[in-house]
Specification:
Shape of chain A: globular
Structural class of chain B: mainly alpha
Largest interface: A-B, 82 and 96 residues
Order of helices and strands of chain B: HHEEHHHHHHHHHHHHHHHHHHHHH
Radius of gyration of chain A: 28 Å
Number of strands of chain A: 3
Largest sheet of chain A: 3 strands, mixed
Oligomer: heterodimer
Number of strands of chain B: 2
Number of helices of chain B: 23
Helix content of chain A: over 70%
Chain lengths: ~650, ~525
């Protein structure tokens, strides 16, 4: 068939033919979004009446969405690969002149993969939260926000145009803001929430300008039409669009230079960190770049910048993760780093897209599992987050230890576990992309692998091994089943999902109609993965990282307070001075400008007008009399004056 | 349809209601309140029925038109009629007034007339607000434009807040008078050149103003524009607004900023652009620059404020910058966005002022520093505050996003640089709103201070409709745009401007082909 030839043969970026959805499952796939949205509405508007059962409703609705997504996937798999792309028009959001913003969904292999991740991992974390938030008197509100997040995130990945994507994009930003600041009575939480929203808005500004530029260039903001014409626009224009999209991605995905909000975002309850700030929302930038592949294919400079940003962030995040004593912040640094991997892969072009998305999915499982594990530890340790007050917890929390341990093995790239498969994919893609750039990116990925092994081993040892350094009132205990069962499910994913996706090129082939394929498939054969020199180097660096951490933290006793740090460690503890830079360059000058302008407004702008008023008053005695009179006099004077003018007019004409 | 004088009824009903309230004996304050609520509610019903009968497409440009000679000797008519833009603004005003009445129920209980006069003034003002949007005779418009000052002057000076209220009222009046006088000169000029005050006879290629020489038209344009810029308010003639809003009761501020200021931007769109097309095109860049200054300057000043009423006033300076930017971008997205912005801003800022009013009712202060951790004791109030604030920062899903987005799209199509500069406002808006929220609503509640009550039933009813409208029109703004779009198209034809074509022409055709496919 001509269509399939076109799809498979295209070297650059092939798009399957999108047909209008048919059948009850696909036609009504807006329900994916509507179900959790209704949940949020019921819980927020229902008030206290829903306190007793609201959280169960909030668990059931994302689960129903997950079921619907599975049904849609099965439906999709029933069609030939090149026809697995469905348009689901819902209604016209707004339309003026030549501009249309449609509420219209795109179901294709890429979006359904995200939908499954969001609703699947999302449902597990909802279940976990039932236990985790059991003692919080605002639990209903928490679940409402979680449902709101799931709905917004689904809008983001299911939109078939940039305007609707932007709705989801800022919608998840709102949910993130509400949940980071969920414990608003703490100043630190409120400040962190505001910071996250603000930094994200800087990125959103980029996305917004990209949308404007697309409309003036292509006359449309629909994916299909923009991608179809991307090759025709000039390279300068496409580079601008690409860089603006990257700015948006940097905000949402905490990539340099908009990374500073993510570590502060750990102020939110731990399930939020797991769902939003590890598994799903922060990966939206990677989604945006992969989805906009056609744009970046037409803009090589922008694409290279994506890879550079990713490589820099993967190292920066890993370095930060090495020095943090707060378990959640160590994991957050890790998240930055892992998303750096994905961003770098997405910047490699079609050769890296499948690897980026595959790692995104497996990371969603093992990082969510790690965060839930951290939450479970905190739950048992009176919300203590300082790993220097942990130690030897493996006996007290066997299930948490086992599931966290499997997530740990997955993230450091222990052979045959999920992370190994997908991270190997990225490392291989980097080296295969060729040239000096490919070598640099590959080297960064390898170095990152070593650092990952170091900082995660450090977390593992400080938390579960060694001597007990607990606070006096700590009585660690295993968490209830509602928390451990989701952790177990995620651990199973951490172990097996990578092989299931990568082995036999299954996932890449599934994604191919949506994101295109590289010229040469680099099939993930077991033999090359275990024998190619990058793989062996990665393995060696991993062992080195683990060993170093073991020597530093396993063999020696961990101090209960952080020892004095050298230059590098201090920099890492201070998040590489990102906040100091922001404060020095933006916040303080900004405050000064605001103060200066406020003074200018009262003294100069207003003063000038008042001055004119005063001089008029002084030059007219009669008016001065009026000025000191009662308010009423003014109105009458005014009316009188107007009447005289009108009368003059009447007489003259 | 023409048998019922809808617009005259909509003007007369609140005017008579205001008179009735004023004539009520002094001790019947409760009756005055209920009369005000009943009359403004009836006006809303009337206007809503009228709006339902409005034909966005296929009908006349000005519908529900009535023309009666008023002062035949000078060609002055009582002429009213609405297009889609005027209609949605009247609708917005009619929605806001009953809510303001409800919110202001106890605000003036300690005034010497216990607030009776305040409610009479609100109704009188409503009549004038509907009149000013409905007028299709330039002189009648001028009369309403000036007459509106009187009730507002008393609402600030007599029923306002703080010791500075009289000074603020005078400042408001002097500023407005200055603009009004300039406009009066221009109005006379229009008559001198055109020989008529009827808007429908003045505009158009064959209209009475078509032959005016370029220089004269530009001066006349300026006369109107300066008056509208003061009203809007635009930088650098904005300083009356923070003073006036700071000294206003929140209900007054809602009508002042939400409705009255819109007369400025509405006037630009309806009078400046349509009567003086050449001058409008000539003045595009100066106005765009002033708009950009307003957007950034207003936002930065909002960040620097320590009083919530003044803060919201400065955010409005920024928002009005977006409106004028959209109008003078001379694109359909820009102008439709600007017209929609006027409605959305009325609801969003209205809600924000009302919530601050509820805070003032509890602690007699609008200073940010007097509040902390309010969400702990008054979660519903804090929630409403947040939603209204998020509307103010144009969060997608709430209605102001749609209009701001359209202004951006339309401005970028006009020229990229102003759109990019304006987009800084997006970040600043997040800062001034969320920082205010953080400082007042979050954090630990200070010890020793009395817990704040959460919203009462009356307060909830006053603000809930606005929140609902922000969400409804955020998700489904098309009904409003269906009314606005034809009017904007007519304006653009009149100014003789067209939307620039996309850089890639053939991509556009693919786009429309695809859309048709999507619509089945």
């Amino acid at each position: 068939m001509a269509v399939s030839e076109l799809t498979l043969a295209a070297e650059q970026h092939a798009h399957a033919v999108t047909t209008e959805a048919s059948g009850a499952v696909l036609e009504n796939s807006w329900l994916l979004i509507a179900l959790p949205l209704v949940g949020a509405a019921i819980l927020l508007l229902g008030g206290r009446r829903t306190n007793s059962w609201g959280h169960w409703l909030a668990v059931a609705l994302p689960l129903a969405s997950f079921g619907w997504a599975v049904a849609a996937l099965l439906h999709m798999l029933g069609a030939p690969p090149e026809e697995r792309s469905y348009a689901v028009p819902v209604y016209t959001w707004f339309s003026v002149g030549g501009f249309d913003a449609e509420v219209s969904l795109l179901l294709d292999p890429l979006s359904i993969s995200f939908a499954l991740l969001i609703t699947g991992v999302g449902s597990l974390i909802h279940i976990y939260s039932v236990g985790y938030m059991a003692h919080d008197d605002r639990r209903r509100r928490f679940f409402a926000y979680l449902n709101l997040f799931v709905a917004a995130m689904l809008v983001l990945v299911l939109a078939d145009n940039y305007a609707l994507l932007f709705l989801g994009w800022e919608g998840v930003g709102l949910a993130s803001y509400l949940l980071i600041g969920f414990w608003q009575h703490k100043d630190s939480a409120a400040v962190a929430a505001k910071k996250a929203f603000l930094v994200n808005r800087v990125g959103d500004m980029g996305l917004l300008i990209a949308i404007m530029l697309m409309f003036t260039t292509f006359g449309t903001v629909a994916f299909h039409d923009v991608f179809g014409a991307a090759g025709e626009a000039g390279q300068g224009l496409m580079t601008a669009i690409g860089l603006l999209l990257l700015l948006g991605a940097c905000g949402k995905s905490a990539q340099l230079p908009l990374q500073s909000w993510l570590l502060d975002a750990m102020e939110g309850p731990t399930p939020v960190s797991a769902l939003i700030h590890a598994a799903t929302m922060v990966t939206a930038g990677v989604y945006l770049i992969v989805r906009s592949g056609a744009v970046f294919e037409a803009a090589p400079a922008a694409q290279l910048t994506v890879a550079i940003v990713g490589a820099a962030t993967l190292l920066a995040g890993a370095i930060i993760g090495c020095a943090k004593d707060d378990i959640k912040k160590a994991l957050a640094g890790s998240t930055m780093s892992q998303i750096g991997y994905m961003t770098m892969a997405a910047g490699l072009g079609p050769i890296g897209y499948a690897a980026a998305i595959a790692h995104l999915i497996t990371h969603g499982f093992f990082k969510a599992g790690l965060f839930l594990g951290a939450g479970s530890v905190m739950h048992g340790m009176n919300d203590e987050v300082d790993m220097r007050r942990y130690g030897g917890l493996r006996g007290a929390m066997p299930v948490t230890f086992a599931t966290f341990g499997l997530g740990y093995l997955a993230i450091i790239g222990f052979p045959l576990l999920s992370g190994w498969w997908t991270k190997e994919g990225i490392i291989a893609a980097a080296f295969e992309s060729g040239g000096a750039a490919g070598m640099v990116f590959g080297a960064a990925a390898l170095l990152g692998a070593g650092l990952t092994a170091f900082y995660m081993t450090r977390v593992m040892i400080m938390t579960f091994f060694g001597k007990r350094r607990w606070a006096d009132d700590a009585h660690p205990h295993e968490s209830p089943a509602s928390m451990t069962v989701p952790m177990i499910v995620l651990a199973v994913g951490s172990v097996a999902l990578g092989a299931a996706l990568v082995f036999g090129y299954r996932f890449a082939a599934f994604l191919e109609p949506a994101i295109g394929a590289p010229e040469h498939h680099h099939a993930f054969s077991m033999a090359t993965m275990l024998t190619s020199w990058p793989s062996l180097a990665a393995l060696g660096l991993m062992v080195l990282g683990v060993a170093t951490a073991w020597f530093m933290y396993g063999r020696r006793e961990v101090a209960r307070t952080a020892p004095r740090a050298g230059l590098v460690t201090a920099a890492a503890r201070n998040e590489l001075y990102g906040n100091a830079i922001n404060e020095g360059l933006l916040m303080r000058p900004g405050q000064q400008v605001a103060r200066a302008l406020a003074a200018f407004d009262t003294s100069v702008v207003d003063g000038l007008v008042n001055g004119i008023g005063t001089s008029v008053r002084d030059s007219s005695r009669g008016l001065r009399g009026a000025q000191t009179g009662f308010a009423r006099t003014y109105a009458l004077t005014m009316l009188f004056g107007a009447a005289i003018v009108v009368a003059t007019l009447a007489v003259r004409i | 349809m023409t048998d019922i004088p809808w617009l005259t009824l909509a003007i007369a009903l609140p005017a008579l209601g205001g008179l009735a309230v004023a004539l009520l004996p002094r001790e019947r304050v409760l009756a005055a309140k209920w009369t005000a609520l009943g009359v403004s509610g009836a006006v809303l019903v009337l206007v809503a029925v009228m709006a339902a009968r409005f034909a966005p497409t296929g009908g006349e440009r000005l519908q529900f038109a009535e023309v009666y000679p008023w002062i035949p000797r000078f060609g002055v008519n009582y002429a009213v009629g609405v297009d889609g833009i005027a209609l949605v603004l009247i609708l917005m005003s009619a929605v806001l007034v009953p809510l303001v009445v409800l919110a202001a129920w106890h605000e003036n209980d300690d005034a010497d007339d216990r607030g009776k006069g305040y409610f009479a003034l609100i109704l009188v003002l409503e009549a004038m607000m509907i009149g000013v949007f409905a007028a299709t005779d330039v002189f009648l418009f001028y009369v309403f434009f000036e007459a509106m000052l009187i009730p507002v002057y008393f609402m600030i000076g007599r029923y306002g807040r703080g010791p500075q209220r009289r000074a603020a009222a005078v400042k408001f009046l002097l500023y407005s008078l200055l603009g009004g006088l300039l406009m009066l000169v221009a109005v006379i000029g229009v008559y001198v050149y055109g020989g008529t005050f009827l808007w429908s006879e003045l505009v158009g290629p064959g209209g009475a103003l078509a032959g005016v020489d370029t220089t004269a038209a530009r001066w006349l344009f300026l006369g109107f524009f300066v008056a509208f810029a003061i009203k809007a308010p635009m930088w650098p003639v904005h300083t009356w607004l923070p003073t006036a809003a700071g000294a206003s009761r929140p209900g007054t501020a809602v009508l002042l900023v939400g409705v009255l200021d819109k007369v400025g931007t509405y006037g630009m769109l309806r009078y400046c652009l349509e009567m003086f097309p050449e001058a409008s095109r000539w003045f595009v860049w100066p106005v765009v620059v002033l708009s950009l200054v307003s957007i950034v300057y207003g936002a930065v000043l909002a960040i620097a404020q320590s009083d919530m009423m003044r803060l919201i006033a400065y955010t409005s300076v920024s928002h009005f910058g977006f409106i004028t930017l959209g109008i003078f971008a001379m694109t359909s997205q820009g102008q439709s966005g600007a017209a929609l912005y006027m409605v959305n801003h009325g609801f969003a800022t209205g809600a924000l002022f009302l919530v601050v009013g509820f805070l003032i009712a509890r602690r007699e202060s609008s200073a940010i520093g007097d509040y902390r951790g309010v969400q702990k004791s008054a979660p519903v109030l804090a929630g409403v505050f947040l939603v209204a604030g998020l509307a103010g920062l144009a969060l997608p899903g709430l209605s102001p996003f749609v209009s701001e987005f359209l202004v951006f799209i339309g401005t970028y199509a006009f020229h990229p640089v102003p759109a990019i500069i304006a987009s800084v406002g997006v970040v600043l808006a997040a800062l001034y709103i969320l920082w205010m929220y953080q400082r007042t609503m979050t954090g630990p509640a200070p010890e020793g201070s009395a817990r704040l009550r959460d919203l009462s039933r009356r307060e909830t009813w006053a603000v809930a409709p606005l929140i609902a409208l922000l969400i409804i029109f955020g998700v489904y703004p098309q009904p409003l745009l269906d009314a606005i779009n034809p009017a904007v198209e007519a304006t653009m034809r009149q100014v003789d401007v067209t939307d620039p074509a996309p850089a890639l022409g053939d991509a556009d055709t693919t786009a429309s082909g695809q859309e048709e496919g999507d619509h089945e």
